[in-house]
User: Fold this.
Amino acid sequence: MLAVGEHVLGRREPTWIPMASGLGGGVGGSQQEMCGALSGGVLVLGCLFGPAGAGEDRQFVSDRVAQYRERFAERFGATRCAPLRQRIEAESWLPGCDVLVEHATEELLTFLAEVEPELD
Assistant:
């Protein structure tokens, strides 16, 4: 997902991968929290739409994150890691989350293309 941020922003910050490294597997591999692919998408949205400093309005980014989360839930049936992994196994997708990350990336790019006019 951070590759999407790199693509959209045209740069890659050296802190991005270390900063996001604990999000995989539903936070620390626990599978009990939000999907790492969704978390990565939220980070990208924050980079794109978040306020530049404390005290600035966060409503715009909050609205976009809520919309993206809802779309993710509608498409994949859950936002938590464990139910998503169970679905992957039940539908005989590739082991792990490779296919989910691929589809989540597509969803994020589609969402960004739809939201981009709002920035003008």
Notes: The mean pLDDT is 84. The CA atoms of residues 73 and 79 lie 6 Å apart.
